[in-house]
Amino acid sequence: MTRNTPGFRLNAATGTHRGDRQYQQDQVEVISHPRVAGCVLAVVADGMGGKSGGRKAADQVLLTAHQLFERFVPSEESPAELLAQLAAEAHLMIKLTALSAEEEPHSTLAAFLITGGRSCYWLHTGDSRLYHFRGTELLKRSRDHSYVQRLIDEGQLTEAEAEVHPQSNLLTGCLGTEQEPVPSPDVIERLEVGDTLMACTDGLWHYFTPRELGTVLHNLSPREAAELLVSKARERARGSGDNLSLAIVRVEALN
User: Per residue in 91-126, pLDDT tens?
Assistant: First the structure.
């Protein structure tokens, strides 16, 4: 998908794979605003809950995103408030879904919204991540809502130790739980030509260093990068990989 506005264009791609799991519970999409060129919303949701439960939760995230973004008026409304509303409403819908199902559906959320003025707002809860690269350099990434991230922040674990920690998949926040989630928002005041944003689930980022991600995202088109990262993650998983999904958007100069 490529959307043009005066002075720049947004080149986007998504990728997803079931991995070595029996069920695909991830959802990912890059949504173009129906009325404003250069305004896009990227959403990644990693569903949890056994069998179809996780997929139901991830589906609710995407459905809520579509409904809210369709009504969103960029010139009058706050992108940050839209993302907060997305998290709150998806959380509520997932909890309502649980009332009529035997599963206990939960979902992570990693979303970013790029405006026509090249600012970017993002929000996440859980361990799906958001990355901002300028060329090959990582400028910013989200911090996981997880037990091992808390230990890292407290100086009790290194990043390398966290990757092999037996409780590395224990989350401290996500959508659909009894406790109200506290999503983490952030803003990038202005994206530059050559910047790349990526949202992805832990089934993908677990297998790459930031340097590797930056090199791939800078040197390949978003579609080629998505294909390579999915393929390499599958190779490195060695038959034990989780569902994996990613959404990539690059800011490019007009030819």
Answer: 999 999 888 776 789 999 999 999 999 999 999 999
- Measured distance CA(11)–CA(125) in Å, rounded: 25
- Distance, in Å, from the CA atom of 247 to the CA atom of 245, rounded to the nearest integer, reads 7
CA distance 124 to 179: 16
Question: What is the rounded CA–CA span in Å between residue 181 and residue 178?
Answer: 9
Tokens of 39: 């305004």
**Alpha-carbon distances, residue 83 vs 166, 192, 206, 238 (angstroms):** 32, 22, 25, 36
CA 91 to chain centre: 16
| pTM for this prediction | 0.94
- Contact predicate 12/40, CB 8 Å: yes
Residue that has been written with the tokens 């794979």 in this structure: 17
- Could you identify the residue written with the tokens 């939760």? 57
Residue 194 amino acid letter: G
For residue 57, give the amino acid letter: A
For helices 53-71 and 79-99, what crossing angle results, to 10°? 140
d(C-alpha 166, C-alpha 18), whole Å: 23
